[in-house]
Amino acid sequence: MTEATRPITRAEEIRLAIETDIFQGRLRPGARLDEESLAARFGLSRTPVREAILQLVHSGLVEKKPRQGAVVAPLDLHRMVQMFEVMGEIEGLCARYAARRMSMEEKERLAALHRHSRSYAAARDVDAYYASNLAFHDALQSGSHNEILREIAHTLFARLAPYRRYQLSHPGRIDVSLAEHADILAAIEAADPERAQEAMHKHAALQADVFAEFVSVMA
Question: Is the keyword S-adenosyl-L-methionine in the record (predicted)?
């Protein structure tokens, strides 16, 4: 079973619903997330609700405050754009090393993930495309064969995950993302480190621009 077809857990379902509420402005910065109310809303126990809130805290969308519990964190747009910039540099290095070091088998897997992404994009299945997109980036990071670089990339990726997911909702962004992945894949298949790094850097820079436009109304 691929990551794109894996059923999501109850906690992930709740987390995604809360993320949607935050990004669509139904939950504003400072809004309190009450476990009991959320459990009633989803018809579940408080255990998956608590787990979902912890995931949101880890991503930075929610913060824990004394005597208030979990509240929607204020959106620091400038900081998020800076994180995208750093992510672009880190993933650019991953792509550079992957172009040098990926085995033929690893390149074939990366190409297969891109084909899956293409089918999800054609179906306009944002959730499946996002999951396949994550798998593509993970395979590329692994293909760098640099564990330190991969650890840094994973940490930043986890923090930016909700924002990367929702910038795909921007009109036309999936098609552009797919084309950018095609450029990255072609450079890696050609074993061209400079081209791979440049293509990945461009990919991340456009993500930052789209993200800034997409959520500026929330600031």
Answer: no
Q: Which residue segment(s) compose the domain that 171 sits in?
A: 77-218
Output the CA–CA distances (angstroms, integers) from residue 169 to 41, 61, 172, 173, 185, in the order listed. 25, 18, 8, 7, 23
pLDDT in tens, 51-80: 999 999 988 889 998 888 899 998 777 787
105 and 29 in one domain?
no
φ, ψ for residue 62 (rounded to 5)? -130, 150
* Nearest partner of 59 among 94, 117, 11, 92, judged by Cα: 11
Residue 218 per-residue DSSP state: G
* Residues in contact with 187: Cβ distance below 8 Å, sequence separation at least 6, in sequence order: 95, 99, 195, 196, 198, 199
Cα–Cα distance for residue pair 4/61, rounded to 1 Å: 23
Do 28 and 108 belong together in one domain? no
With vertex at residue 64, the alpha carbon angle to CA 61 and CA 70, rounded to the nearest 5 degrees, is 75
Residue ending a domain, choose from 47, 72, 97: 72
Element housing 62 (H / E): strand 62-65
Which tokens is 210 given?
């789209």
DSSP annotation of 32: B
* pTM exceeds 0.90, yes or no: no
* 3 state SS for 79-118: HHHHHHHHHHHHHHHHHHHHHHHCCHHHHHHHHHHHHHHH
